[in-house]
Amino acid sequence: MRAIEAGDVVEYLREKGRIPRAKAARAEAMGGGVSNVVLRVEVEGEPPFVVKQARERLRTEMLWVSRLDRIWHETAALELLAGLLPTGAVPRVLFEERDDFLFAMEHAPAGAVPWKQELLDGRADPEVARRAGAILGAMHAATAGQPALAAAPLSETDLFDQLRIDPYYRTAARAHPDLATTLDALIASMAVPGPTFVHADFSPKNILVHDDGLMVVDFETAHAGDPAFDLGFFTSHLILKALRAGPGVGSYLDLARAFLDSYRDRSCAGIGDDLERRSVRHAAACVLARVDGKSPVEYLDVPARGRARALARDALRDGIDTWRELLDRAARGMQTRLLSGPGDGGKPR
Q: Please, which contacts does 97-101 make with residues 24 or more away whose CB atoms are closer than 8 Å?
């Protein structure tokens, strides 16, 4: 594989015939993510586009590696969703260079920003949450029974294991052995392909907000699976941001409620019954994993980590199975900055 960076991608693309030599071009690195090189390329007289190349070694403190061909999960996902979701909800694939594990895709509209940054800056817009819920609900509903889910690469779950189950759930189980049985049950429930398309990284950092709506990106963990994981994973991010904000701030939990209501309105499965129970358990597990897994969130201080850990442990230990109870407990957790239990912020010794 020929690895590319911002300094040599233009010449690489010229050699591949993707950029005319007669046109001026430039490239710059784009921020975000730990697993790929992502570059913005501008060519004279043409819309900008994004080049993405997989890397085997992820940029985390703990050693974390993954197969390079995960990038083809992303292109397969984008090509599937392009025909099922409204135009602009996901970027179009422009071309692939398979020998170099690289592809190019449509750039987000001008002015688009990651929703994560807006949330961390204190801008909690319920309309964005509702739109995100509608997109995820439509994603799950439209893909149920699609033939592409029964074929490689989307039928494969080993990359999901590498990038989510092992670094999140198994690592958290090792840190909290008293919860290992509960977390192992969640792991077992995701061991076989499920009924719908699962993004598996549907989070505020991968939702780009612009004047005309939202664009969802970063599909390399996509697979046929249980929609409950997407619901739990996304909601855990809003819970973590609520716990970061601390006492007296409820807007982030209101965003979670708006997101869940909108998802229920658009999804074929809804939020009720067993899907709700499963997704609540995943939300608690993901909160715990973002404190004690391989990829902890960077924006929590020690007291907030303690609140997150205590909430997740209590929810998993008590078998919480409704969104109302989980979000109510999160709201109560925001009212105290006391760390629960022994050790580092309540983490068992």
A: 97/16, 98/72, 99/1, 99/2, 100/1, 100/2, 100/4, 100/53, 101/1, 101/53, 101/54, 101/68, 101/69, 101/71
